[in-house]
Amino acid sequence: MTIVFRGRRFVVTWAFNAAALWVAAALLHGVYVTGDNAWLTYVLAGFVFSLVNMVVKPIVAILAIPLIILTLGIAYFLVNVLMIFLTSWIVGSFHVDGFWSGVGAAVIVWLVNVLLDAVERRVVED
What we know:
This protein is mainly alpha-helical. 81% of the residues lie in helices and 5% in strands. The chain has one domain (2-125). The protein has helices at 2-27, 38-63, 65-70, 74-90, 99-125, and strands at 31-33, 94-96.
């Protein structure tokens, strides 16, 4: 039962991240997709972003604990920006141009995920 729940949660996270990356690309000039199958790129980028957040982000966050403490948590936000850039590097047709585009994308992805998670919780409660 726990494995099914975690698998379902990963699929939901994957879908939310794909949607959030699409919104970021729609709102920011420095975030875009190249190639013929844009929707497939968003699905792939959402998958990679979900995996990166699940596997790489905890390791980077642990290594960055002194910097996170020193900056009162701002460095943790920069870890999120780094995960956006790592996703862009892994998925060749998903591009983030420049630091501020990465910052904007991280903020948008966070906001979209918060909104979608609130909607999902409300649907599950009903």
